[in-house]
Amino acid sequence: MQQTYIKENLVVKMQEDLKRALQKPMNKRSWIMVIDTDKCIGCNACVVSCIAENVSPPGVSYRVVNDIEDGEYPEVSRYFMPTNCQQCDNPPCIEGIPEDAYTKRADGILVFHYDKLKGKKLFQKVENQCPYTAVYYDEGTFYTANTPKLEPYETRPSYEYGEEWSRVGKGQSPINAVRKCHFCLHRLEASMLPACVTTCVGRAMYFGDKNDTDNVVNKLLKNRKWVLINESEGTKPRVFYLTGTILNKETCMTCHG
Amino acid sequence: MIKKITESEVYENTRKRISRRTFIRSGAFLGGSALLVSQLNWACNLLSKAEAGTLTPQEIYELSKAKNIIYSVCLQCHTDCPIKAKLLNGVLVKIDGPAYSSQSMLPHISYSTSPAKAATMEGKLCPKGQAGIQSLYDPYRIVKVLKRTGPRGSNQWETIPFDKAIDEIINGGLLFKNVKGEENRNVLGLKNLYSVRDPNVQKTLSIDAKRVAKKEMTIADFKTKHVDHINLLLDPRHPDLGPINNQFVIQAGRIEHGRKEFAKRWLNDAFGSVNFFEHTSICEQSHHIAYIMATNKYKNGKWFGGKEHMKPDTLNSEFIIYFGTGAFEANFGPPPMAEKVTDGIITGRLKIAVVDPRFSKTAAKAWMWVPLKPGMDGALALGMIRWIIENKRFDRTFLTNANLAAAKDSGEPSWSTAAWLVKIDKDGTPGKYVRASELKLGDENSFVVLKNGIPTAFNPYDTKTAVEGDLMVNTAVQGIQVKSAFQLLWESAASKTLDEWAELCGINSTTITALAQEFTSHGKKSVAEFYRGPVKHTNGYYNALALISLNLMVGNPDWVGGLSVGGGHWHEDGSKPGNPFNLKKMHPNKLGAFGLKISREKAFYEKTTLFNGYPAKRPFYPFTSNLYQEILPSVKADYPYSIKALFLHKGTPGFSVPGAQAQLDVLVNKEKLPLLFACDIVIGESSMFADYIFPDLSVWERWGMPHVTPDVQTKTSKVRQPIVAPLTETVKVFGEEMPICMETIMLAIAEKLNLPGYGGNGLGNGWDFKRPEDYYLKMVANIAIGDKEGETVPDADNPELELFLKSRSHLSKPIFDQQRWEKTVGSDKWKKVVYVLNRGGRYENFIKAYNGNYLGHKFNGLFSLYAEPVATTNHSMTGKPFFGMPVYEPIKDAAGEIVVQDGYDLSLITYKEILGGQSRTLPNDYWLSSILSENYILINSRDAELLGFSNGDKAKVVSTTNPEGVWNFNNGKKKPVVGKVKVIEGIRRGTVAVSWHFGHWAYGATDLKVDGKLIKGDERRTTGLCTNVVLLTDPYLKDVCMTDPIGGSSSFSDTKVKLIKV
Ligand code: SF4
Ligand code: SF4
Prior knowledge:
The structure holds two protein chains of two kinds. Chain A is α+β, with helices and mostly antiparallel strands. In chain A, 23% of the residues lie in helices and 18% in strands. Chain A contains seven helices and ten strands. Chain A has helices spanning 10-22, 45-54, 120-129, 185-189, 195-199, 216-223, 249-256; strands spanning 31-36, 64-72, 75-83, 102-104, 110-112, 136-137, 178-179, 205-209, 225-227, 239-243. In chain A, strand 4 and strand 5 form a beta hairpin. Among the domains of chain B are: 201-233, no CATH class; 311-565 and 858-871, Dimethylsulfoxide Reductase, domain 2; 737-839, no CATH class; 906-1061, Beta Barrel (Barwin-like endoglucanases), CATH 2.40.40. Chain B is built from 32 helices and 43 strands. Chain B starts with 6 loop residues before the first helix and ends with a strand. Classes of the chains: A alpha+beta, B alpha/beta. The interface between A and B is large, with 81 and 107 residues. The structure holds iron/sulfur cluster (2 copies). One iron/sulfur cluster is lined by residues 40-46, 65, 80, 82, 200-202, 204-205 of chain A. One iron/sulfur cluster binds next to helix 6 and helix 14 of chain B.
């Protein structure tokens, strides 16, 4: 009899991996994100999920998905390339930034302290130093300002970094702060995977502990080809890109070597 | 005065507390829906606790808690994905894919998982679905009833009380005496149209009208017999048109199960009008009709009960060809479909080909992209079939099985008519299947094959005597000329050489061969999948039938990896023996409706009293229903009769129908359309022409029981339920408080007109029908109890009952009342209903998806390779019969003439981005439009070079129908069809593509006056272009778009355009 194809649910499995990792002390776990460019369908679900989760205002989107066309008709290719803060282990963005404005956590996440990492000047410095265009300035605007009604989903609190933030009140953090992806730290601590991972429609996003050899992410890294973006700059990024079926490594390297 | 809130006003507030004043002043569009005070102090207690350092991260993260979660169903598109809605103080703030849902998890978690556990688990949801928050909290939502104070389309309104609006609509009169030019316009109210009121009268009129149509009764006899009631009819000379009640029409856009049955019960069964319409013909109707024709059952001379939709078992297929569709945009949903494809590609299990003039996101992952000419999908399929038959690569066993017994013998769940004999006329035209009785071999419900050359009769459903037939038959039997269905398909496929097929398609014949070769290299795990692309043409039905035939060549139905009918659902309508509430039967004194629909759908011209030779005055559409595009043009033509009142619900003919100008022109026509009222969440491109607009509840505030796509292999019943408190005004109907919405309008009219089946005991003895949930909760109960005995869900335990109440603590009386809800289903069922509501529906566990080599849920039936009902019906304009087998047909107008568009060289196609649907999504959901703020005219780089366009140039799109390239709103304003050119490689040369979401001129995009105050439109909502107004109107009829005469599809992709630089 023919074997029918029943899979184990990757999200459930990753959540179990996550819970296991959370039982270890923080310095024993090492969060990484793995993005399969071959499976990404360019849907932007991750983008919207991130915006909604973190109550990002106009102009702020921690996650961006690039849609790249290549080749000449009729030999056309198209690639989708999700990017966000790479939580570099050697983060160039914070060079010369006051030390109390950020924390590089033992689990790998680079925390920006909204009440400290504030103002256009600091932002421009961080922005210029980040090779991944991953940081944003919160201008304090709202999508529904200047319409008949400022809608309540824009003034609700977010839970970034495990705190409660409401963007109401002039200059109230994270307004005027430098914002970026934090691997949904607040969700991780509540035993939930990052919002972009759970919602990913192509099931192209994975998350886990690099130190756990038996989990979903490490199995993928073992069995598939992968690249790190702008690796040569020595940033030591924590986001791994799987390639090999649709997009090959060499193509990636032409821009991101 | 509606005041816009400025940013500085927001800043006045502090982070921890938003002052009530600001919120109230910002108000809501048209003055309603202030937030509850409780919603203003965002979790203050929590915050102080957090500051005191007494909270764990889980406690802080409110969105991980079951008490803040309600499960419901999205409707940003018709995939109807289940949603996990997360609330903070009654405000919907985040939407995710539920772990319970077979559409968002692969595989989904066990149904018995407790909601407490599921609270931290979640899965996929597309960007539109997540942005639903912004459709719910759209600043342009209307919350009170509006009545126009200027001419139609002037965008001048006043708010009026709900009861007054209902009174005016019912009683009519000089309703617009304040509007210039309408001082003396007397409008007939619904009470004048509620003509036949006695069910017995309706019944006898109906029976005798049918007899007149069948010429079993003369008009004179009819008139004499019904002398007392003749004035209740539309036209005594044509009683088969039905009663005056039919002059009230409901034209619905996106209406789905739950609401659909609610509305039909009201219009058809209680008000007595036949004219209820959905929008399916501007969607993909020909796809449905072709599947129905291919899967009809046969019983006692009748073909009926076909399935309208089948899909690949994508999770196990090895090769799928997507014809004019894909898995990552539109279709029946990226959330359920995409992962099955990406997983298959990554593991090497699956190869896909995409046949589409545009290089879609799905094409990005394809083994082969086939940029064929629009509308040539049928030609390609016939080319492939030719090759498959010539090279004997079809599934002979599957195709030779002529009846159930034969299928069983070879382990096939389904079988086909491939070998069945069809009678051939003297002039070579194929007609009916040969009946055994004609050859004296059996009765008139048995059919005949040649078995090794010997005529053999059989019953299609015989389980004992297996009958297989010869496939290629072209001979005479007892003097009757016959061919097998397979032979007819072969002759159609062989009518052109491969090179000729390739030339029609605009591709190489080697591409056809390669596709056919690959398609026949995976056993039963190859599937030809299609949705809208191939069928939005005048030849849509034949294209679809050719693609279905392609599937039958490999005998893939019901096999793992093959063609699937899907897991289906538990029957919320109560039609199955186990269901406690058979809602169709719960209608005391039901009036019922009869007569010809205004669109002349589901009607045979020759069988009406209107028959007067060919051509008919306007076409008849015997096979299709829901012929959306034909409603307003028929109203204008007064054919077959005039109408008096139109209820436009959640749809927009003036925007979304091809050749939209023809529709817009009728909307402003007060003579042809004396009363026009609408119900929607925002003032749209068509509802802006209404006399009255009633606010509707959005999908996040109301009920619905949408069905699941056949892509899902497990049984799935989704329940849409109120998540947030209603934003619309609360009113009183039947003494009960409820928010204004479609259901409330119907209940209020039912109360005032005393329609049968509403109010106390409206659903039968002991069962009131005073509120929407009196109906919908019974549907939930049907799902909970199941279709047959022993199928019920468990009772909700105490923690679950508690959770149910806790998670609804923000919902108050007008929408939620536990005691009332319990009473309406009965206490014995209540805990089961809660169990279902706590999970947003009912999901069979994944283990049931497959059964060895077979799908767990099978079609188990007969496939028609030749559709006898179609073959035996005449085109109402040409008088010539249609074909039973798939054939290649060029694009034709209503008179059957080939359409010429000389001087226009670019084919125009539309498509959808995953970020948008036709409505509610782009550009008004700002998260989505922050990613894609406008659409473009996609053009191949070499075409652009030839025409002198560069990226970003502005161009106007013009056609023979609309050489000016303009929308005319008939209110003094026009909008040119102008957009930016985007030069790409990924589109066929000679074709341009424009996505279908943008180009709005209403829906918050324009200024309006309400109660004398100006409400400014939002620039962001005006971007991009909509090309529907450029699409061809029928060259013969001139007042409606072209239409597939069999499948009913409006023609979206047969138009040639020019681009003019602006
Ligand atoms: S949700 Fe997943 S598939 Fe969609 S764009 Fe993001 S990474 Fe790609
Ligand atoms: S595909 Fe997206 S928009 Fe459509 S129902 Fe699903 S989540 Fe909603």
